[in-house]
Amino acid sequence: xxxxxxxxxxxxxxxxxxxxxxxxxxxxxxxxxxxxxxxxxxxxxxxxxxxxxxxxxxxxxxxxxxxxxxxxxxxxxxxxxxxxxxxxxxxxxxxxxxxxxxxxxxxxxxxxxxxxxxxxxxxxxxxxxxxxxxxxxxxxxxxxxxxxxxxxxxxxxxxxxxxxxxxxxxxxxxxxxxxxxxxxxxxxxxxxxxxxxxxxxxxxxxxxxxxxxxxxxxxxxxxxxxxxxxxxxxx
Length: 235
What we know:
By secondary structure, the protein is mostly helical. Helix content is 72%, strand content 3%. It contains six helices and two strands. Strands 1-2 form a two-stranded antiparallel ribbon. A hairpin with a 5-residue loop joins β1 and β2. α1 crosses α2 and α4 (129-151) packs antiparallel against α6.
């Protein structure tokens, strides 16, 4: 009787190499796909944040323009009131507009949605270093400066003092709104100087705000243009 002690099988190196290569390709492909998905998510997150920043600063620019135009009109209104008090010819039909505009105040409430989204996802989601720094600087410096700027309003005492001096020359319509001011206006030199000193202070305040707004407008416009450029490169 013969016994078969060993059962040899032919080992296929080609088959082993193929299986190993297949596993390697599968792992690398899965890793690459995972990286691609991660990069895609980060790119989408960056794109959405840049979009939010773009629209936020665009709205901020509209607010700045509106407030700036209001302060320019306020300066004209100060000149109008000086002429009125000095009994120079003025359009009395416009007295209500000019008189109210002198004391008008404005708010600046920038939209921080884009920046808050950026902070929540991490500042590094923005790949452009210059754009990231400009965003951070705007919301951590310019934002506070603009907000505080509008908190600095002139004293209400100015309004009441001027109002009391001119009250006897004011005429009101049936709705109780200022419709005209009678000329000639005869007030003392002390009263005239008091009103003029108030108008000077108001004008100085308006000049300061117009100057600051103009400078910030340039910075924010650059930020908006950067956002637009980045979005174009992502298309």
